[in-house]
Every structure is written in structure tokens, then in C-alpha cells.
Amino acid sequence: MKKHLILSMLALSAFSIQADGVNLACAPYQPLCINCPEFQTLFPVEELTDDPESLDIEADQSEIISNETYHFSGNVELKSDSHFLAADDLEVSTSDNSTLAQGNVRFQDNTYLITGDLLSAKKENGELIAKATNANYQNFSVGPGGANGYTETISKTPTSVFLTDATYSLCPINKNDWLIDADSIELNLERNRGFAKNAILEFYGLPIFYLPRYSWVLEGRGSGFLTPSYNSYTETSQTKRSYSLRVPYYFNIAPDRDLILALTHMTSRGFIYEGKYRQLIAPRITEEKEDSLFELETRYLFDDKITNLNRWLIDTSIELDISEKTHLSAQYYRVSDAKYFEEVARTNTNVKTLKSNLELNYDNPSTNLEAAILTEDEQVVNAGTPVYTRALEGSISKTFNADNKLPIQVDVVSTKFDHDTPGKESGVRTHANLGVTRILSSKFPIITTRANVDSTYYRLDNSDNINRTIVGTGVDFTFPFQSQGNLYGSQVNHTLTPKISYNYRAKEIQGNIPIFDSTDKYDDIITFGDLTSGERYTGLDRITNANDFTLSIESSQRDVNALDDDKDLLNMKIAQSYYTDDEVVSDTANTNYETRRSYSDIAASIDVAISNLTLGTAVQFDPDQSSIVKRTNSLSYILNPRKFVSMSVSDNAVKEDKGQKIAKFYAAYPLNDSMHLFGGLDRTTSTGVTNAETTGIAYESCCWALRLAHFKDYNGAGGYNYSTGVELVLMGLGSTSSPLRDRIEEKIPDYHVNLRYKP
Fold first, then answer.
1. Which H/E stretch holds residue 529?
2. Could you tell me which of 584, 586, 601 has the C-alpha nearest to residue 550?
3. Is-contact 398 432, C-beta < 8 A?
4. How far apart are CA 223 and CA 73, in angstroms?
5. Predicted confidence (pLDDT) per residue in 676-709, tens digit
6. Burial grade of 505 (CB within 10 A; 0-12, 13-18, 19 or more)
7. Residue 83: alpha-carbon gap to chain centroid
8. Which residue of 161, 229, 613, 681 lies most exposed, with the fewest beta carbons within 10 A?
9. Residue 717: what pLDDT?
10. Which residues contact 272 (CB under 8 A, 6 or more apart)?
11. Do residues 617 and 632 lie in contact, with contact meaning Cβ atoms separated by under 8 Å?
12. Which bin fits 212, alpha (ψ -120 to 50), beta or left (φ > 0)?
């Protein structure tokens, strides 16, 4: 059975259709293609004339056979505005606009090169028709990746190419790793389709598949089979290996819509039927917005052999710009049961919940007005636990005097929270904020003052209603120093920004308020941004009391020609807060305050970007212990986006009582220009649990690729799920939308399965 599955996968991979997946072509605009040989043509391309009335002929000898027939011999070359022709012997008839060339024939028009023993050409109704025998041909107009091969006869018109007893390949002319050998091949340029009769696919000279009739797309998208994916895996309840084969078929319905239907056979569970429909509803209204798109994906497994249940997935979404200011976003995402991803899809096993939502947004920058309505629901999957959801939320935000020195912002948001766990508190939270910002000085030093009033009302289902009003104010003193210099051989703009911030926020008892969406930023590692934000908690259920000062310094050294998205060559930050109150609002249920020191830990970070190398370190330093209590380190080196060497390493130590130390490692290493290894490791070192492990190897030729990947995933119950996937892609015939590609990129963030360089 295993051999049959592998054979079927290879066969269907060979006869796949170019769609929206991997494109192995090295496009002309791409400056470099490591695994492609230098682009070669059958013979040097000639420059045609610009004059449509011109016909230039050069030859060693010439004679006039009749009034309208001419004969040329010896190194004959003919050049016009539509074609070039060279041969040992050439006969031209002006009466019927025909040409007959013999011996070492070389023919060129705007798209094709042809060499052969004999070629005849004739102009009919202004169109050139050429026919050659025992010929080699090449479509040189698309650069590397153009069709080429050998044929007994070739007939070419401006709209079609017909070949008999021919071969066809999209590999370079000197590197035909795969080719199609057929009795006849028609390349219909108007319909953008190729048609072959009695076609045999040969891979490295070995015949691997035969089709009596075959059709494919010459360029761009087209309907047909996509590359199948093959996986082996082991069920948790079994010891014998199981296998799955997914065969997708792509329907290019129209330029603005398409459909993928797929059939997956899992030997342990049965057949899965899958469909994914996409439609472009409307193009983007402005450059800042995205296209309006509708997507619908469904999967169904009838009568699972192991559970005897029907297993399914549905994921539908719509992104629609109703107007320049109004946007609708909706998604419905559900599976049949919590173990669907672990047992059936065998991917997304780290997802805790699936979110469904409906949101309508209004944004008017000219009036500084924003409004939104949102409703959402979540389904717990894998090892997740129920969480609060926003059953209904409405919000509005308006800024007055936005262009003046005294902008006033008003925000109101009302949310109804629900929870699937019986006994969990629920209700409606309405929060209003009035904030004023005043720039007292825009010169050195920059002085900014602020004040706000927060009022929150809780209408709870099973408890008394709660009101909370908190007043806050603050002032920032910023001292920016700017200069220019050199760093790593580059001219840089250096900005040193010391800052003193004072924050005051009234102390309010909040232990009786339920926690719907608040989390403590300090649970992980205290960062520079956490301290300088002035707020310890996310969400609105806890608002930190404050009567404190924060001192911070940021040093930024940036290339003078850097773009907005470019990183600083060197960035250093350090901050510490000093408290006048030894109590802080607690996020522990039914607890009002926690004690704290009169100062925070010190948060510091340093980030370095040198060419392809980036280094980053963030630390939390405890002054009492004179030691670093938490840290996060990262390292990445990306050589290029196709054949690259990259590593990302992080070691994050969090609260001792949680005992979480996580190490992540990702890497890809090229063995040569065509073959590379890739891998990823996500491990909780404090418990010894490997959350995810990925290893694989890829071979990427100029016109085909093969990928093999092995996955190990923690199932949350003390065990692991194992699976292995393999995929073969042929340029132009094999494009892919398989889960293997998505899964590799999910497990290894710095790795890109797309096999071509991006400009």
C-alpha cells in the first residue's frame, strides 16, 4: 500500500497545474538565482529591424532564378522586423511571400528560437507561418523557464505552436531534468493552454507516468491538479504507522475567483472531502486598504474509523470595504470537536481556541472619529480552556482640537462578556474615558502634560452592580540630543533621549470587580515599554494606582538612508520606576492590593543589526539581589530569503513560581546550491517537554523541487504526535497549496517554502 501511495503521489505531482502556489521559475526581474545555471539560448538572440518594409539579406553567393524567385547560399542571413533566419541555403519567392531554408537553419521571431535541417516560412494576411523538421525549439521571451525541447516537425503561427513526436520541458535547455515526450503537442497561445497526446513524463530519463490525453496552462493560473501531499503518522492509540495522501484539484473559475477541491485518504480514519472557495468582492478603495475578499473552507470526514463520528471543519471569512470609511470583517471558524486538529488535521495542535467574530468599523480621519461594533465567540480546542468572549461590544472614539496644542479625546466602550463555564461571573462593562494632552514646550526640553478621568460601570448578572471612577494626571520631560557619526562603516543619525515621567492615578478598591480581560504585564518579563507606558495591566478590569516617577534613556543609532521599516543599527534602552505608595492594585480575585517596594526592577535592552545579523537582549535586573532575574535573548542570521542560513534562539525565564523556561531554535543550512536542511525546536527546558520539533531536507533544482519533513508535536497529555510529509513540485506543471508548505512555515518562522527570490 505504501509503495502504491508514493507512486500515485509522484505521478499526480508530475501532471499538476500551475496555480497560486510555489513557482520555481527564476523570473527575469530577479537579480540572482543560485540553483539555476546561467541562462542560455539555442543561439545568440539577434536584434530585429525597426522598419516593416525592410528585408536585409547577406550571403556569400546569390542568383536570380526567375523574376520573383531568388537563391542565396553560403552563410545566409535574413533579417526583417518580424523574424531572423540563417541557413546554408535560402530560396526566397516574392510572388507568394515564401522562404525555404536548408542546412544549419536558425530561426527567430519575437518569442521563439528554432534550429533544424529544413524550415519553410510564409506570410499570410500579414502573419508569419513557419514550419521546420528535425528541430530544437525554445521560448526565449520569458527568460529562464521558457518551454524548450526537440520535435520532428514544428509549425508555428503567431497564435499557436504545433509539435509532432516532440519533447517539452520548462528546465534550462542544457539541464532537462524532467520532460514530457508525446506523439503531438499543441501550445495554444490564445487560450494559454498546452495539449499533449500519448504523453509520457520522464524524470531523469526514467518514465514515471503515462497519460493518453493531457492539458496544462502555459502561463499563470489554470484549472487542474495541484501537487498532492503525502504524510505518514502514528495514531496515539496504535503502534502501526498510518499514511495519508491528499490530492487537490484547482478550478480557475475567473480572474477574481477560484476553487480548490481535495480528497484526502487517511488509512487509519477514512476519506476527507475538502473545498476552499475564494472570491475577490471588490478591489481596494485606497492604497492603504486591502482588497475585499470572501473565503469559504470546509472539510468533512464521514464516519471516522476510530471514533465512528463525523468529523468536520468550517472556516469562512469576509473582508469588505463598504466605503472609504466603513469596513466589515466577519469570520466563522468551527470544528466538530476539540481533538479535530490533533487527530484528523494533524496541524494547528498548539491552537487553544478558535475565534468567530463579526465586526463593523467606521474610521473618519478628517473628523478624528472612530466607531466599531463587535460580537465574537470562541470554541475551545486541543488543550485549551474556556475564556471570556465579547458577546457584544460597541465603541466610539472622538478627538477634539486634534491639530492644536490641547487635543481632547473621548472614548466610550461597552462590552457584554460571556463565559461557557457555569458559575463564572458575566455581565456588561461600560467604560468612558476623557483625556487631555497639552504640549507646554516643543523645544528642548519637550514638556508634555496629560490628565484623564476613567469611569467604569459594571452591570453584573449574579452580583451587585459596581461603579468605579479614577482620576489621573502626569507630565513628561524629554531631553532629546541629536548628532551624526559613523557606526559599522555607515553614517548614522544618533538620538539620545533621556526622559523623566511623573504619573498620578487615584487609589481605588477594585478587588470586588471580576476579571474579564485584564492580564499582568509583569507576569512575564518587565520590559522598557511596560515601565514607560505607565500602566501595569492590560484590559480595563484593573487600573493601577500611581504616584510615581519613571526614569528612562533610549539611544538610537540609525542609518541616514534607512527606511521606516528598517531596524536601528544599535538601540539601547533602560528604565526604572520609583513609587511613593508601597501598595499596588492587585489582579488576584477578591484581593484589593499587593505590597511592593519603593522602586521597580530595572528593565534594559540592547538590539544590534549588522547587515544580515541581528542580536537582541532584554533583561530584568533586581537591585536588591544585584542580579538579573529574568532575561530574553534572541539571535538571527539570515543570508538570503531563498537559500539561507538562519537561526533564532530565545531563552525566556519567567516567574519562579510558574517554573517556565522556554528555549526555541530555528535553523536552515545549505549543503550546496540546491540542497539544504531545515529544522526547528520549541522546548520548555524547565519541564523537559518538547512542544514542537521539526526536521527536514529540501532539494531545489532550477525546474523542480522535493521536500521531506518530519514533525513531532506535544499532544498536551504527556505524549507526542509524529508525522512525516513529502512533496514533489515541477516548475510550470507542479504548483502547490498543500498543508505541508503551511505547516513547515508555521513551525519554522524564518523559513520560506516559496522557492524563488522576491524582488
1. helix 528-533
2. 601
3. no
4. 49
5. 889 999 888 777 888 889 999 988 887 888 889 9
6. buried
7. 43
8. 613
9. 67
10. 263, 264, 265, 266, 299, 300, 301, 344
11. yes
12. alpha
ω before 386 within 30° of 0 (cis)? no
How many Å apart are CA 668 and CA 666, to the nearest integer? Answer: 7
| Dist. CA 238–CA 722, nearest whole Å | 12
Q: Is residue 510 packed enough to be buried (19+ CB in 10 Å), middle (13-18) or exposed (0-12)? A: buried
Alpha-carbon distance of 574 to 498, in angstroms, equals: 10
pLDDT one-digit tens code per residue, 708-742? 999 888 876 677 878 888 887 777 665 445 667 77
Compute φ and ψ for 740, nearest 5 degrees: -60, -45
Helix spans in 128-245 (H): none
pLDDT at 716: 67
Q: Are 610 and 635 a contacting pair, CB within 8 Å?
A: no
pLDDT (tens digit per residue) in 400-423: 988 888 899 999 999 999 998 888
Please give the grid coordinates belonging to residue 343.
487527530
pTM beyond 0.90: the answer is no
Sequence-ordered strand ranges (E) for 109-159? 112-124, 127-139, 148-157
Contact 199, 206 (CB under 8 A): no
Pairing assessment for the beta strands 602-610 and 613-622 based on DSSP bridges: antiparallel
Query: Bridge partners of 409?
Result: 399, 435
Contacts of 444 (CB under 8 A, 6+ apart): 479, 480
Least Cα distance to 139 among 111, 120, 160, 161 occurs for 111
CA distance 453 to 641: 49
CA 243, CA 726: separation in Å to the nearest integer?
11
Q: Which residues of 24-48 are buried (b: 16+ CB within 10 A; e: fewer)?
A: bbbeeebeebebbeebeebbeeeeb
Task: For 175, list phi and psi in degrees, rounded to 5.
Answer: -150, 60
**Residue 9: helix, strand or coil by DSSP?**
helix
Nearest to 735 by CA among 727, 726, 725, 746: 727
